[in-house]
Amino acid sequence: MAAALVALGGLTGAAHASPPPQTNIIGGTEVPDGKYPFMASLQYQDEKGNWNHFCGASLIDARGLLLTAAHCTGFVEPDKVRAVVGQSKLSGDDGRIGTISHITVKEEADVALIFLNGDFSDITPIQLVTPGTDALERPGRPVITTGWGSTVLDPAGPGGGGSGTYRPDRMREVTVPIVSNDECGVSYPGVDFKYSLCAGRHGKDSCQGDSGGPLFVKSPATGRFIQLGVTSAGAGCGALGYPGIYAKLSTQEVGDWIANLGRSKA
Ligand code: ARG
Fold this sequence. Notes:
The chain is mainly beta. The protein has two domains: about 10-20 and about 35-125 and about 255-260, Thrombin, subunit H (Beta Barrel); about 130-250, Thrombin, subunit H (Beta Barrel), CATH 2.40.10. The protein is built from three helices and 14 strands. It has helices at about 1-10, 180-185, 250-265; strands at about 30, 40-45, 50-60, 65-70, 80-85, 95-105, 110-115, 125-130, 140-145, 170-180, 195-200, 215-220, 225-235, 245-250. Strands 9-10-11-14-13-12 form a six-stranded antiparallel β-barrel. A six-stranded antiparallel beta barrel has the order 2-3-4-7-6-5. The chain starts with a helix and ends with a helix. Mean pLDDT is about 85; it is low at about 1-25. Bound molecules: arginine (ARG).
């Protein structure tokens, strides 16, 4: 709940900030229309009736099942929240809109499932990593993360957080290396690597507003996208020595939890 308020609160300065000097998610590039159709934007409606992006998510089943971060689902008025799936520009009108049917949360892993009302049958969902396998998450492997989060580099610790945020209208992507648990544990001693994995390097990262979105690879064998993680946390953004932390989907317990709930929608 507190974390979700942080996610929403992070939006407040966005309208006033000016674009960052770098073309940068952090250190990334713009995503052309249609490249990642499984991407979703979670949005809340303000008093003026405007819809505001606050978290990412991914479509994992065309019947309207979204995977996001648990900390993105602390909102208290589900009727003021919607998901837009399959649209690269937040200002566009080519996405599929879903209203919230119900939500199930797995707190340990910072993952949640959102069951949507709406028609998503023409969108190819992202495939999930096979539980119990880690071949795609060896340290150093390049993986992709996407979102509409802040593009302003934020050094962790003293001096960090002061640079403001800039929220792009068009989705961004960045390729980041998987960071070993040993190395990540030095930066984040409290992290439980049963439920988390780390990726990123100085200047290449996700940031506030990217939470809930996917960490994924393109399968060399099939060309399909395979999701390994859910954007969760980090100190600063793109900060030296502080990679991004992602909820880990290859853990058997997490994969089984998702698969069981996914089936219950049938
Ligand atoms: N918790 C953030 C959110 O709500 C995501 C932070 C990711 N940070 C990072 N340095 N990778 O959007």
